[in-house]
Amino acid sequence: MERTFLMVKPDGVQRGLIGRIVSRFEDKGFKLVSGKLVQVSDEQAKHHYAEHEGKSFFGELVDFITSGPVFAMVWEGDDVIALSRIVIGKTKVTEALPGTIRGDFAAHTPFNLIHGSDSPESAEREIANFFEPGELLGYQKTIDSWI
Ligand code: RTP
Ligand code: MG
């Protein structure tokens, strides 16, 4: 069973979209194993976006993600990393299809509402950057056998 790190970015929190974004992943049948509102620190942001260090938009990205609270989550499911990125939609809003979170709600590229891990290695690093192991809850969802 795979885990991913998803995070409603400050624009999603400000626009009151936490509930509707969380619903998309509940609807898909994934299991929420942790979630909390976080004010991301500068250091935490730089660690989170380490892969983009040196790119022209790195500073902007760190400023944006630290500009207000985010809603950080860990979700579990088969192929949850790849599938949740399909639910999220393409990075560029001009390429994000209707039916995806970004396609339905995002209108400008930096403000694309949600982050999702792009690989098992990223997921592990990102989860550890935001959560203590004890915050990840293992529990049975009886509906799982029907999905
Ligand atoms: P994310 O990491 O936030 O889930 O987004 P992603 O995988 O779809 O996109 P990624 O390539 O990892 O880029 C991270 C975030 O950086 C901003 N970005 N700006 N100005 C630019 O050219 C540019 N490219 C990327 C976006 O906010 C993107 O979500
Ligand atoms: Mg990314």
From TrEMBL:
It is an enzyme of class 2 (transferase). Residues 1-138 form the Nucleoside diphosphate kinase-like domain. Its cofactor is Mg(2+). Its EC number is 2.7.4.6. It comes from the Bacteria. GO terms for biological process: CTP biosynthetic process; GTP biosynthetic process; UTP biosynthetic process. GO terms for molecular function: ATP binding; metal ion binding; nucleoside diphosphate kinase activity. SMART domains: NDK (SM00562). InterPro entries: NDK-like_dom (IPR034907), NDK-like_dom_sf (IPR036850), Nucleoside_diP_kinase (IPR001564), Nucleoside_diP_kinase_AS (IPR023005). One of its GO terms (cellular component) is cytoplasm. It is found in: Cytoplasm. PROSITE patterns: NDPK, NDPK_LIKE. ATP binds at K9, F57, R85, T91, R102, N112. Keywords: ATP-binding, Cytoplasm, Kinase, Magnesium, Metal-binding, Nucleotide metabolism, Nucleotide-binding, Phosphoprotein, Transferase. SUPFAM superfamilies: Nucleoside diphosphate kinase, NDK. The active site is at H115 (pros-phosphohistidine intermediate). Belongs to the NDK family. HAMAP family: NDP_kinase. Major role in the synthesis of nucleoside triphosphates other than ATP. The ATP gamma phosphate is transferred to the NDP beta phosphate via a ping-pong mechanism, using a phosphorylated active-site intermediate. This is Nucleoside diphosphate kinase. The gene is ndk.
